[in-house]
Design a protein that fits this description.
The chain is mainly α. It is built from 4 helices and no strands. It has one domain.
C-alpha cells in the first residue's frame, strides 16, 4: 500500500477526516499512519492544518512542531522496532 496513487487517495481521505472528526481522534489516526508508512511526511501538512483550525493566538505552530518531533522520533526508532 505504499504506492503513489494509494497515498494520494489516502491523503484526501485523511484531509477530510482532519476537517470533520474531532482533533483527538484524527491525531490518533495520524499517529497510526506515521507508524505504518516508512516516511509519512504528509503529517507535517496535517500539523499545519491543526494549527490553522485549533490554535489559539499565543501558541502558534504547536501542531506542526509536535508533528515534526513525532515524525523524527518514529524515523529514528523505526530501525529498532522493525527487524
Amino acid at each position: 500500500m505504499n504506492t503513489i496513487p494509494n497515498r494520494l487517495i489516502l491523503f484526501f481521505i485523511i484531509f477530510f477526516v482532519v476537517l470533520l472528526i474531532p482533533w483527538w481522534l484524527s491525531a490518533i489516526i495520524l499517529i497510526a499512519l506515521t507508524l505504518y508508512f516508512p516516511l509519512y511526511l504528509e503529517v507535517l501538512f496535517y500539523g499545519f492544518i491543526f494549527d490553522t483550525l485549533y490554535s489559539i493566538s499565543r501558541f502558534h505552530f504547536v501542531g506542526l512542531v509536535s508533528a515534526f518531533v513525532g515524525l523524527m522520533i518514529v524515523t529514528l526508532a523505526r530501525p529498532h522496532i522493525r527487524t
